[in-house]
């Protein structure tokens, strides 16, 4: 499925349930990934249920410190919280 069929509402739900990111809404949705009480990375998702543009999708993957293929995995199911923590540990962002 990936970004071509996804929208901002669906991506937010997947990030909340699979990556355990807490969002707050204002002009846009900002969410932090917190590991052991420390904020690791922040992602911004546009409001609404609009289809995602390629550049916006790449920017969200970069903010989450993962590749666009891994973000596709968040949407399509094989990439979850444990895999995300492992990837951030591999990059040296968490200990």
Main structural class = alpha+beta
Mean pLDDT: 88
Helix and strand succession?
HHEEEHHH
SS summary, helix count: 5
The oligomeric state of the chains shown is: single chain
Q: What would the principal axes of the Cα set say about the shape?
A: globular
Cα(first) to Cα(last) distance is 32 Å
Bin the helical content. 40-55%
Approximately what portion of the residues adopt beta-strand conformation?
15-25%
* Radius of gyration over all CA atoms, rounded: 12 Å
Number of DSSP strand runs: 3
Question: Going across the major beta sheet, what is the strand order?
Answer: 1-2-3
Main sheet specs: 3 strands, antiparallel
Give the low-pLDDT segments.
none
Detailed description of the structure:
There is one protein chain. The protein is of the alpha+beta class and 95 residues long. 46% of the residues lie in helices and 20% in strands. It is built from five helices and three strands, in the order ααβββααα. A three-stranded antiparallel sheet has the order 1-2-3. Strand 2 (29-35) and strand 3 form a beta hairpin. The chain is globular, with a radius of gyration of 12 Å.
Protein topology:
Elements lengths: L1 H4 L2 H11 L3 E4 L3 E7 L2 E8 L8 H10 L4 H9 L4 H10 L5
Antiparallel strand pairs: 1-2, 2-3
Short description:
The protein has 95 residues and is of the alpha+beta class.
Task: Name its key features.
alpha+beta
């Amino acid at each position: 499925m990936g970004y071509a069929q996804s929208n901002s509402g669906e991506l937010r739900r997947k990030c909340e349930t699979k990556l355990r990111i807490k969002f707050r809404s204002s002009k846009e949705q900002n969410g932090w990934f917190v590991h052991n009480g420390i904020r690791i990375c922040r992602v911004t998702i546009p409001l609404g249920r609009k289809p995602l543009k390629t550049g916006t999708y790449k920017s969200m993957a970069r903010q989450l410190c993962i590749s666009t293929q891994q973000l596709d995995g968040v949407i399509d199911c094989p990439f979850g919280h444990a895999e995300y923590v492992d990837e951030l540990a591999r990059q040296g962002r968490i200990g």
